[in-house]
Structure formats: C-alpha cells, structure tokens
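User: As part of a screening pipeline, I want to sanity-check one entry by hand. Below is the sequence and the SMILES for zinc ion. Please return the complex as structure tokens so I can compare it with the automated output.
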Amino acid sequence: MFVSLYGPLWYYYLLDISTFVILIPALLFSLIASAAVNRTYSKYQKVSAASGMTGAEVARKILSDAGVTGVSVVPCRGKLTDNFNPKTGVLSLSEGVFSSSSVAAIGIAAHEAGHAIQHAKGYLPLMLRTALYPAVKIGSYLALPLAIVGILIEWLSGIGSFGTVLLAVGIIAYSLSSVFSLITLPVELNASARAKRLTMQTGALTGEEASMASKVLSSAALTYVASLAVSITYLLRFLLILSRLRRRN
Ligand SMILES: [Zn+2]
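Assistant: Here is the complex for your manual check:
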C-alpha cells in the first residue's frame, strides 16, 4: 500500500529555495530505496520456488490456514501494485505475483495475506492507520494551499499574524501525514515478519527461499522508511519557514 501525500510541490519550490536544501538527503534516500526494491524484486523474480505454488495459491492457503474468511484474492494490473483493501476485503496481486511461482512473488503474496490477517485479528497499528486515513487525506489536500496562502499573506502584507496562523494550521494538517507514515512502519514490518514465518509454515518456501523473499520485503520496507524521512523533512522545512516568519514579525 503506498499513498502519495506530497502533491505538486513545484510551485512552492519557487517561493523558498534556501530551505529546499534540507530535503535533498531524504529525496536521495527515497530514490535509492525505490531502486533497491526494483533490483531485489527482479533478482528474486527469476528464482523459482521448489514448491511450485503461485502467489495466489500461497495467499489463499495462508488465509485459510489462519481461519480468515471473506477475503477474495484477485489479479490486478501493474508492477508491485499488490495491496489488501481492508474496506472491501479484496487482496489484489499484480501480474508478476498472482500466477508466478517465484520466490519474490510468493513473498509479496504472503505479505499481503499478512495484512489481511492483521485486519482480521484487529492488529492495533493497522486499525489506527485505517482510522486515520480520511483525516490524512483531507489534511494533505489542505496543508499546502494553507501554508502557501499563509506565506504569501505574510510576504505581501508584512504585518499581522493571520498568515502565520494559516501556515501553522497548514503545518498541523501536514503533520497528520507524517504520523500516518510513522504508523505505516510497524504495519509493514509486522506483515513482512508474518510472511516469512507463514511461507515456511505452509511449505510454500524453504528456509533458504524464505530468506531470499525476506530481502525483497526488507527493501520494500526501506521505501516506507524513506517516505517517513521525506515527510518529516517537509515538516521540518515548514517549521523553519514558520519560525522565520515569526521572528520577522
Ligand atoms: Zn504492505
């Protein structure tokens, strides 16, 4: 599950170059992490599991062994677009995962089944994450317009604190997405830990194969760490701008 919360920031870059610099390490980290996930995925996509089970078969077996009912496992388009939707109970597996018997495919399918089990068992971080999602979505739409209008008002008027208040509200709205990224980490790490254990339990992967699948899932987890880093540095950037405006007033 990946949600992009950063939006079209380019117009804001024009307004403030000096604090843009602090974003660079996190953005680089983000690029490196997504390159790593692509690299490990294509590497272990070429390794066939001895069991010969497909991603879809593994997901279904894990769910039935765990006694989780009401989840449908369906194919979806795209690469690495695999996800579990807690609202609809649909577990979607991408083209390279659904009918593939590669170690990478089985690992990813088991990871998504892990999310379905988290949902069925009421795993707290997942419940929090799902509950927070609507507020995060609204917050991420409002954050940048509020912040930008706030900064513009400050610059144009040069006096008063209305712009600063708008910017502060924008920052609070934005911070929701950082909290969301933070809660995503235990959810993802837990699903991957379940995947490693369950693929061995179901006989889908041998211990050695499960370690390879784990590498794919760990590099995917790194992209969530990168998202958190990016989110926090954006937040930091806004806070720097806010403190500068307050000092000027
Ligand atoms: Zn996941």
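Points to compare against the pipeline: Helices lie at 10-15, 24-45, 55-65, 95-98, 103-120, 124-157, 162-201, 207-248. Strands lie at 72-76, 83-85, 90-94.
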